[in-house]
Specification:
Length: about 450
């Protein structure tokens, strides 16, 4: 096979997938799907002006799932040669013959397969040589260190570029593939004043390298954030409003998505059990899924099962419209797949009538905690209990008063979602969930 990673590889990968499906049929499988991919990338890290790492990434793989009635078996390989493909299929078949039958197992319904494939503008290769990558990362870090003499050390600046081609097919006759890219640039710096040392970072992520934030601007943002944290204090235990920055707010919405996934629902292990049709957010909040946004980081014409993606109002006026389902979890719940096998696609969170710029959010809150970093995984998906280490800034009279650290914020996610009183216009697009800052009323802050 060719060593290139571009759209010209699609016919080769389609042949690999078709061969795997034919082999599965020949082995007696009633249904099968296969996913073949090739990927390559480059990552460069510079620290204190010196090259720390240069890594080339090159990957290929095939994953095969077969069904004998409702018995399922899966196997994978990094070898795409015909003999290896046949061997992988045979292993999947051997596994399936020894597994228990599950009436919900099987391909997604044929009627739901994607049939239209508009160009979503996801492929922007970056012909980047290591020397160029080093120079961009070096310039990024240098700009950050130049912000203030108290920026005495660095965890480095890293540039990464990745391109992949994926083809998915199944025995319904579905066979489609696409190339895609992602590029990122980040910088993490350390500030020191006496015995006080603080760290912070910034990054940019995009499909097209021309959409990345300029390297020097990323470095300066990282430097400014680190300097701003010097002199951080601990807080006494209290109850107060909490303002989550966009990056932290995304995590709160992620807990919500985890609770409405099909697996959480059919396992009866969710703090939002049977919540479809219920008020889960304040009335002003809307959440829309838009899978076909051009250049979207989570865009796609079909999900991990070949099911066509579609626009959806997931939360309307604070009310949950339904769950996030693949075909298996949908069958377990007696519902239909929502085209979310493999995850959500570009969730857009908005709050018409309750949106403010950053200064407006501070004024709206008056006094409280502005969280810019969270630590730990203290979230119980069954009960919704939430307790995480945090750092950020204390707000007084609608303005930042001083940095804080070594504190814990606690509450219950369900109450936190309902307790949102305002949202920011500072929408962060660097992920599958696009949202701005959030103000949550009445959280417990544990400190000294």
């Amino acid at each position: 096979m060719s060593d290139e990673v571009d759209a010209t590889r699609i016919p080769e990968l389609q042949q690999v997938v078709a061969s795997a499906l034919a082999a599965a049929r020949a082995a007696g499988a009633s249904a099968a799907d296969a996913d073949a991919s090739v990927q390559k990338g480059l990552t460069v890290t510079v620290r204190m002006g010196e090259v720390e790492t240069i890594e080339y990434h090159r990957d290929r793989g095939l994953a095969v799932t077969v069904y004998f009635g409702h018995r399922k078996g899966s196997a994978s390989t990094a070898d795409l040669r015909p003999a290896a493909v046949t061997q992988t299929v045979n292993k999947a078949c051997a596994i399936a013959r020894h597994t228990a039958s599950d009436e919900c197992a099987g391909l997604a319904d044929a009627a739901g397969m994607a049939r239209e494939f508009p160009d979503l503008d996801l492929d922007f290769p970056w012909a980047l040589e290591p020397e160029q990558a080093v120079e961009i990362a070096r310039e990024c870090e240098a700009a950050g260190l130049a912000v203030d003499a108290r920026l005495t050390n660095s965890e480095g600046a890293s540039l990464s570029t990745h391109r992949g081609v994926r083809v998915f097919g199944n025995t319904h006759g579905f066979l489609a593939g696409l190339p895609s890219t992602s590029h990122s640039l980040s910088c993490a710096l350390l500030a020191q004043s006496g015995a006080d040392m603080q760290r912070d970072h910034w990054y940019s992520l995009a499909r097209d390298a021309t959409d990345l934030m300029a390297g020097p601007a990323i470095g300066r943002r990282a430097g400014e954030r680190a300097i701003a944290r010097l002199g951080a204090r601990r807080l006494g235990t209290r109850r107060a409003p909490v303002l989550f920055s966009p990056e932290m707010a995304r995590g709160l919405h992620s807990h919500f998505i985890g609770a409405i996934r099909g697996a959480s629902q059919y396992r009866r292990a969710s703090f939002l059990l049977d919540a479809a049709g219920q008020q889960v957010y304040p009335q002003f909040l809307q959440m829309q899924e838009r899978p076909r946004l051009p250049r979207g980081l989570a865009s796609g014409n079909f999900d991990a099962e070949g099911v066509a993606t579609r626009d959806r109002e997931l939360v309307r006026d604070g009310v949950l419209d339904g769950y996030v389902l693949g075909s298996y979890s949908a069958r377990k719940l007696g519902l239909k797949t929502t085209g979310n096998a493999g995850g959500v696609h570009n969730l857009l969170v908005s709050a018409p009538g309750a949106s403010y710029d950053f200064e407006g959010l501070l004024a709206r809150m008056g006094e409280g905690l502005y969280v810019t970093e969270l630590l730990g995984q203290g979230v119980n998906g069954v009960t919704g209990d939430y307790s995480r280490g945090a750092s950020g800034f204390w707000i007084e009279h609608g303005a930042i008063a001083y940095p804080v650290h070594e504190i814990t914020i606690a509450g219950n996610v369900r109450d936190m979602l309902r307790g949102i009183v305002a949202a920011g216009t500072d929408v962060d697009t660097r992920g599958a969930i696009r949202c701005g800052s959030l103000v949550v009323e009445g959280m417990t802050i544990a400190g000294e």
